[in-house]
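USER: Study each token:
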Amino acid sequence: MFSGLAHINTAATRSFSHSLTFGIDLAVFTNIVQFAVAKTNKSRTDMPFCRKWGPVFCLVLATLFSMADLVRHLVNDAWGTACQELEPSQSMQICDSASNDGCTILDPKFDKACFSRSVANEFSGGEGFPHLSVYGWVFTIFCTWTGFLLLFVGIFWIINLPQKLRLKWRSLRGPRGAQSARGVDIAPLSAGA
């Protein structure tokens, strides 16, 4: 079913995907920061400096931390491949090392020899979590998770979620110690036990 996907997973499509993701994420995160600044200027004017601008600082840091791994991807895409031009007298060949049947000379349009090099690679010596490089630990794990944690803290802080939840809880449950959720007075039960 997915056998055709191997043909579209190339260095060019990965680079395009990383660039597109970077652009979309940057637009979304900066719009969230703009919303927080506008809300702060409109409705948080009477607060001390840190309580007033704290959510905005959290969201700016969330933007920077969350975008760090995408920048690492773009750096890897841009400088992770090195190419050397062939001299006019040189040609590229493909040789079969298993059978020693000789080599096939490629068309002259193949005038570059390209190879991958290690530039801010996420993994070292294999794939998966146990093989993360220093870049993988710093950018993929620390920066991304810290960024999303700060994003949630900043959004919940700017929209006053804890206060709204506390008010909703009190409106559902009533004042503390007066009645149970079903409207039964629990004071005689707790006093006579």
Summary: The longest strand covers residues 81-85.
